[in-house]
Amino acid sequence: MSLKRNVLLTVTGATLALSNFKIKAQESIEAPLDTLTRYVQNMSDDISKMKRLKITGYVQPQYQYIDSAGAPSFAGGDFTNGTNKYYSRFTMRRGRFKFTYTYENVEMVLNTDATEKGLNMRETFIRITDPWKNMFSLTAGLLQDQFGFEVTQSSSERETPERARYNQTLFPTERDLGVFGSMQMPKSSPLHGLKVDVAVMNGSAGVSPEFDSHKDFTGRLQYSKTAKSEQVSFAIGGSYYYGGYRVGSNKDYNFQPINGDNGFVFATDTGNYNRVAKRIYMGADAQVSIDSKIGITTLRAEYIQGEQPGTDKSSRSPTGAPTTALFHRNFNGAYFYFIQNIGQSKFQVVAKYDWYDPNVEISGTEIGKTGTNTKLADIRFDTYGFGLTYRMNTNLKFVLYYDLVKNEETLISGYGQDIKDNVMTVRMQFKF
Amino acid sequence: MKIQTILISLALYSGISFAQKIKGSDTVLPLSQKEAENYMKQNKSAKITVTGGGSGVGLAALVDGTTDIAMSSRKMKMAEKMKLQNAGKAVKETIIAFDALAVVVNPSNKVSQITREQIEGIFTGKIKNWKEVGGEDLVITVYSRETSSGTYEFFKEHVLNNKNYASSVLNMPATGAIIQSISQTKGAIGYVGLAYLEKEVKALKVSYDKGKTYIGPSMETAKNKTYSIIRPLYYYYPTTIEKAVKPFVDYILSVEGQKTVEEVGYVPLTK
User: B174 pLDDT exceeds 90?
Assistant: First the structure.
């Protein structure tokens, strides 16, 4: 009886289970085309989600050789490691990996730099663009300085290995923490080609947290246009920087006449802890590109002048609160590029000249004179660069470049004549 | 023997089985599709895929190396030339056909002819009512292509004398959308390629000599160049693959290929 009952229950259960399965199977039947459509739709949705994240970047391994071991250099840093001096090196100049996540009109960017010096954050920001005309955008976070052309141009696109000396001095990381608004006139506007950028930043070069309450302002106006023939294009721009940082308990010096000479005199208002060392820059830039039978020729120039505080050794903008005496200087600087593509070939030649005069009120053997308090940071440098680039394909290029660096001959020890600091750079770049 | 077999296979692969990708202008798209179809019928081993997206998309794909030929309804821009140079790519430009742009209105519109200056006035927003150009008292609704379109730029440069479109102009994503909108809107005006002319819209005769003579868009007036709103259509390809793409380009330029140009509704090159 028990066996019979068990058999009956088993058969009933199996029948119910099978009939249930059949019902389910009937429910899930769909036409092959529908299955394919659903499959493709799911794939399309997945791809759309994946396309929101874009990974781009470039790596720049290079070899360099300088005239004398241990010489100071703006071609990727001094040729020293602590107290050790050397005259040649292999370096990974830049190893950028940029992650951009875009959803509708919002973009989040994370840009890192992976080199032998470690992994550093270059940019982290959020950008919101107006969804109606894509005309206005607001960016906040760790972002690029918005002054001049060369500072904002990507190092992967620049025709020379490094930026001009004055740009490296005034904008050491080309980045800062803050907020930046941009307005770009749409194609349908009569003012198309016009772009206005306004930024408010910490002024601490983005590598250290804010150390005073003082915020720096940057404004940039630019206009670009291409001739109807698509043979000539030009762009002009004007930039203004107004900022500074707290001097605190450090001494500071103003430049003025002293006993018939020009030199630094101790400022009298050192009692005010919150007094500000002003950074005021004004700049103008222009470039023109002409397409002809010999290839595309580009001429580019930028000029800057203003006030820049610094130490006695360097006029570099601070990356942290000042800890030594400050010297207030009026400076100027400029660069000129001549870029020639050789016909339609893969070769391009470039010549560049730049100067940086950190203290325009003194020159030559006036620098270093006893009693003037003028030192290393007052020396003018002129740099002549020549290069050849071979663009193998969309991703890979090779650059051979030579920097001929001239300094003022002063009374400062070691700078009585031009120091041996010419640099040769051989660089490979892979961009993706 | 083995080496010979490999060499022959390689030769066959590179010479015959070269799959060509063509990308770019939506204006050139139907022409390229038809030409590719005909070419593949005659050359069984040829594989050609044609996709649209716009002139800018095609030229960008040329820089990225994701297309072999870029189709464009406008000349390559300076910025695009510079990008190609930076990618170490030399390209060749070939005009494969011409396209006539027709200025079209709703068929119920009584206006049948217009001067270039009046077109400029309408598209820049100075003329807002059809009565200002001899029509009835009716507000003008202006349709244009999107700003990314090569057609948009050509019309602005060659018909509007490089003046800017009025902000009230409605930008449409495709020619089909313009035709549909104009056919449904009594006071509408827009521009479309000759190949897209349909009964739902009416093409206006246009005067380029301030009203002395008016010429309507047709294959005949486009071919004899009496109609003025004509633009070249381009193919751009890297010189490094010229050998591989040239047979197809030469086919389009041949008598047979140019016959197809006319059949599709574009203007063949004059010999």
Answer: no
Q: Looking at this protein, which amino acid is placed at residue B79? A: A
Residue A1: predicted pLDDT: 44
Count of all residues that appear for chain A in the document: 432
Question: Which one of A132, A188, A389 makes the best mutation probe of the B interface by having the most chain B beta carbons within 10 Å?
Answer: A188
Report CB contact under 8 Å: A344, B91: yes
- Rounded Cα gap, residues B225 and B264, in angstroms: 19
| Cα separation, B98 vs B269, whole angstroms | 7
- Among B100, B97, B101, B72, which Cα is nearest to B270's? B97
Is the interface score ipTM higher than 0.85? no
* List of residues 6+ apart from A307 with CB closer than 8 A: A278, A279, A280, A281, A328, A329, A330, A331
Percent of chain A clearing pLDDT 90 (strictly above): 78
User: A225-229, A330-334, A350-354: which range is least confident on average?
Assistant: A225-229
Contact A356, A164 (CB under 8 A): yes
Query: Which residues from chain B sit within 8 angstroms of residue A187, using beta carbons?
Result: 147
pTM of the model: 0.84
Assess whether pLDDT exceeds 50 at residue B217. Answer: yes
Q: What does the pLDDT read at residue A189?
A: 81
pLDDT tens track for A34-78: 888 989 999 989 998 899 999 999 999 999 999 999 999 999 999
Q: How far apart are CA A205 and CA A177, in angstroms?
A: 7
Where is average pLDDT lowest: A210-214, A250-254, B29-33, B260-264?
Answer: A210-214
Using a CB-CB cut-off of 8 Å, the residues of chain A touching B242 are: none
Chain B's closest residue to A395, CA to CA, is B87
Distance CA A371, CA A125 (A): 48
CB-based contact, B167 to chain A, within 8 Å = yes
**Residue indicated by tokens 């009964």:** B199
pLDDT in tens, B38-95: 999 999 989 999 998 888 999 999 999 999 999 999 999 999 999 999 999 999 999 9
Contact list, B75 vs chain A (CB under 8 Å): 230
**In sequence order, what are the residues at sequence separation of 6 or more whose Cβ sits closer than 8 angstroms to the Cβ of residue A119?**
A112, A113
Mean pLDDT, residues A319-340 taken together: 95
Q: Do the beta carbons of residue B104 and residue B204 sit within 8 Å?
A: yes
- Could you report the per-residue pLDDT of A339-380, keeping only the tens digit for each? 999 999 999 999 999 999 999 999 999 999 998 999 999 999
Quick one: which of A181, A245, A174, A188 has its CA closest to A211? A245
Query: What 3 state SS string does chain A have?
Result: CHHHHHHHHHHHHHHHHHHHHHHHHHHHCCCHHHHHHHHHHHHHHHHHHHCCEEEEEEEEEEEEEECCCCCCCCCCCCCEECCEECCEEEEEEEEEEEEEEEECCEEEEEEEEEECCEEEEEEEEEEEECCCCCCEEEEEEEEECCCCCCCCCCCCCCCCCCCCHHHHHHCCCCEEEEEEEEEECCCCCCCCCEEEEEEEECCCCCCCCCCCCCCEEEEEEEEEEECCCCCEEEEEEEEEEEEEEECCCCCEEEEEEECCEEEEEECCCCCCCCCEEEEEEEEEEEEEEEEECCEEEEEEEEEEEEEEEECCCCCCCCCCCCCCCEEEEEEEEEEEEEEEECCCCCEEEEEEEEEEECCCCCCHHHCCCCCCCCCHHHCCEEEEEEEEEEECCCCEEEEEEEEEEEECCCCCCCCCCCCCCCEEEEEEEEEC
